[in-house]
Write a structure and sequence with these properties.
By secondary structure, this protein is α+β, with helices and mostly antiparallel strands. 63% of the residues lie in helices and 7% in strands. It is built from 9 helices and 4 strands. A 4-stranded antiparallel beta sheet has the order 3-2-1-4, with no helix packed on it. Strand 2 and strand 3 form a beta hairpin.
Length: 302
Amino acid sequence: MSRAVPLSRRSMMVMGVASVGGLMMLMWPLLVRQSAGGQVGPPFVFLALLPVVIVVVLAEVTEGGLDPRVLAVLGVLSAVNAVLRGLSPGTAGVELVFFLLILGGRVFGAGFGFVLGCTSLFASALLTGGVGPWLPYQMLVSAWVGMGAGLLPRRFTGRAEIAMLAAYGVVAAYVFGLLLNLSSWPFVLGIAEPGHTGLSFVPGDPLSENLHRFLVYTLITSTGSFDTGRAITNAVAIVVLGPAVLTTLRRAARRVVVTGNVEKTLPGDVGAPSVGCSDEHGKEATMSTPSSGLRSEAGSQI
């Protein structure tokens, strides 16, 4: 099935470069090198650049322009996700926003999933008053969740597909919590001096020691609580609601994704030209058009 937001090679390259840059922005505490006792300031330049990176990627992904029908689907799913996040604000890790993001990325593709992740988190932050310096990181990681769902193997169907998506939802829940913790860890506990470490980030310490402190910190604070609750919520929602939601989204996708070829024949050509397109059930249909003095061929993809 055609993607609602098709990706060109350049768009895929931009998304890849932006993802690498975003990952470095998240992992800066493990990458920084500073002599013991030195001062390390927060990377405010990263915080300023991250929204710019997201905007550039969104502009590149939607370079060809969104068809009004695709834009309507994106708006509806973003609004539903915003409402779901308001109804399930993460208490004990119960968050319903991710299961619909995963299913949307699965049906409409990686590009649509990336855009849906950004718009869903942005809309929900406006709705719940959750706008803050953490929002660009949440948008970026959520975009990765939606994009990853669109990159999953297409050969799985039926129960195998639901099992794959449920497993992906569990992994995505833990990865989301891990990366968001990494973005805030140095500021939550502060930057410690050698000899007074605890679980804080210590500039100048070896990567292995800082990584060990972070993993212990995230295991204690979220992995066994919020992240596990989010993983269970994702898996249960996908297993229970996934088949019906996938059917609905695929029916909508067949209505908004249209491919066709139009051909007009020159005078003297035998037979009338035809226009081929896929109906809402994915079957090929043809219809005749009058002959003309011109010959052209065009293809459109929405």
